[in-house]
Design a protein that fits this description.
heterotrimer, A alpha/beta (about 350), B mainly alpha (about 290), C mainly alpha (about 325), B: mainly alpha, MetI-like fold, elongated, C: mainly alpha
Chain lengths: ~350, ~290, ~325
Amino acid sequence: MSASPEPVLTIEGLRVEFDMPFGRLVALRGASLSIRPGEIVGLVGETGSGKTLVCRSVMRLMPPRGRIVDGRITFDGRDVLAMSTRELRDFRAHDVGMVFQDPFSTLNPVLRIGNQVAETLRVNFGLKKADAQAQAVELLRDVGISDPERRALSYPHEFSGGMRQRVMIALATASQPRLLLADEPTTALDVTTQAQILDLLVKLSAARGMAVVLVSHDFGVIAQVCDRVAVMYGGHIVETGTIEQIHDGAQHPYTRGLLDSIPRLESAGRSTRLPVIPGVPPEPTQSLAGCVFRPRCRYAQPDCETVSMVLEPVSAGHETACPVRPFAGADRSFAARAGAPT
Amino acid sequence: MSTIDVLEQPAGVAERRSRLAGVLGLSREAKIGVVILAVLFLAGLLAPWIAPYGQNQLNFTDIYAPPSWAHLMGTDGAGRDVFSRTLFALRLDLAIVLLVTYPPLVLGVFVGAVAGYFGGIYDATLARIVDVTIAMPFMVLVIAVIAIVGPGVKGILIGVPLVAWALYARLARSEMLVLREQPFMLATVALGYSTPRTILRHAVPNLMRSSLIYSTLDMVANLLLLSGLAYLGLGAQPPNAELGSIIADGQSAMLTAWWVSTLPGLVVVLFGVGALLLGDGLSDGKLRGALQ
Amino acid sequence: MLSYLIRRLALAVVVLFGLLVATFFIIHLVPGDPVRIVLAGRASPATIARVRHQLGLDRPLWTQFWLYLSHTLRGNFGTSFTLDSPVAQIIGQRLGVSAALIAYGMLLSILIGVPLAIIAALRPNTWLDNSIRLGTTLTFALPGFWLGLMLALIFGLKLGWFPVAGYSGGIVGILQTLTLPALALGLGLAGVVVRTLRSSMLEVLQSEHIEATRSRGMSELRIVGRHALRLSVMATATILSINIGFLIGGTVVLEQVFQLPGLGSLLVEAVEKRDYQLVQALTLLAGAAVVLASLATDVVQAFLDPRVRLSGR
């Protein structure tokens, strides 16, 4: 294994709260994550686990009433949270790109596609109008839109969802950012288009050495393209590791539960019920002591009430926040082949 | 990548859209409206060249002549050709209508967009100012302004825009409140665009559509206001004619020379119908849900 | 609901205050000296100075505004220069005519508009509906004074059914002298009434809740009667209050057309004679009427519409 280069992004103890009229909501309770250059990291979790918020926090695009109250975000050694407005704009324009979830409303409906892409080249790179137009056409070609000269003259509503998402990707990567945040980019698309968009992301990442954070609630999507994955629950990151480490040897009970609840081909034809994690995710208004998953955990110990949600190493590159580690040693893939839940 | 092409045909063919093609794509209603308005604007524009007689060509031998081939709309009490007078009056009135409708639109949309985008105290203040402004009945307010500055076109050019901007501001503001939640607005910030660019280049073009549609209604209302004021003698002073003043002149002779008051009025009605058809056609008839 | 009403009331007060400020400035924005303009040539500088002092124009601006505010709230609108009587009195004399005209106009717009709207909603997209809709487009495009003139020409001069100038009181007098102008007002407004009522009735008639009622065999007439009618009351009230401005503007011109001694013609006279006190008072009155009308409608709507009542909006 080569020496690990400096991470391009480091998030430490990120805590995000919302000031609502009826009280304070804690949406992120101290998430930590680091991304190395060029790697594709998946961020998986249920709705409400805080995964979108992580991306938004990196760009400091907080939703109304949201505030970052604690933590550090470091990009290439620079403190993101301390950036001035000017530096932040620069940061967003050149260093990070974001792809949003709904392709049907992320492009300005009254401007032509080519103009929208050219605009970022003119504004953020000072290209002249003609150069920007030509470059925009090339960018559209790079993301797999055929006949880009003609297509650049269209309006967004003339494009399918998949094509719009490609345009969004072209826009976000036009500045050759070191990091791309993709928030559920394929959720609104059909399976075939999904695969194509994911392929595109992998291709771009490899070609440009661009790190990607891929957010999804669908583990299958993550498993297709990610090198590493981080599992989120209740505003915390509870486990991180490579795909193999997580898939075969997940140490956190939540991760296991998540994986178990994915329908598998082998169980088709057998009337086994899909295992479900009993209970519901914690309310953001609750303040929780100890492990945030404890109320639903089959393996909870008395100590779990006081443990802090810190990621501890399991093996090289594999970390978990579970102090109990009920599955230590048990190879999940063996159990999976047998068709029985662990 | 040819399989991708097959699977991902865009919803419509991306031809270069010319303005003409855009116009031809309008509904039938709207097209009729465009034609009517075009004819009227052209008539006004070309008045000095196509009017058969001068605006104030007196001819005391031919007083109150009924409509004929020589005088399409007859003559008035001083022998002036009503048709020619109407053309010149149309020219003046349409120019005023454009001046009091579109500059307030631009100002109003801008103010409303900014207030709606930033929200908070700016928005609250603007909303109150708009409420007070809209509370004034147009006609009374303009008359009050005319009381101050004196009769004539000046009073109208000052008075109407004073209130008109508020309507567009209100419209743009409420649309902006919805628009700013749209993902593409967030995306422009994520791309590092400055706030002025986000508002002016991205939000405003989206807001313009409904304001422009509403302006067709506004133009009609303004022309009606204008003619009413001219009728009252508070508009352009003689020898300049406005449609309303021609109608007023003919009132005393209505029994014997109905054409002087009636026919110019029909021109006003025609304008109204044209503008309304256009507005309705563009908005699928949802335009006049709430009248000002 | 109480909180909603209080907020609405507070808003109305703010707007009224804004109106007071705006109308106050009417006199003060006149280029030059208003008193000199009005009395021009007929008075010595001493007289002019005296009148100015009487009107308080030589005091500081703040004091003047305070005087204006306190006088107005007590119903003292000053004295008209040209007519030499208290403004309040003059207005009081002519208020009845205009009020009658507006009320009569509203009544006619309802009588004409509501049945047409119901018919249009019951037979949507037929030639009947389309011609009604075309008719409403036409009435909106008609200038009120022109319509008044045409009505006067046809029904007054040619057919002789109504007088075309002047006003007489009493029920018969009103019917005689105000019918034509009220008709001009009413027809203009009827267009809006038909449009709005028709579309809200269509919405209701096509809603699923009504489908359910229909499927239980209730006759179309009963459906219209029970549901549509209640809707009409609410919708019409809203329309009328929104269009008070239009009605006021309409009376100004129509009183000229038909030579009616109301507030509208008073305003025009006042402008021509540069009687700023009158202009000020009438403008304030008109603005206040609009504010109060919309406040009243909001209150009534709050009582009628359970959604507003319960949620407190």
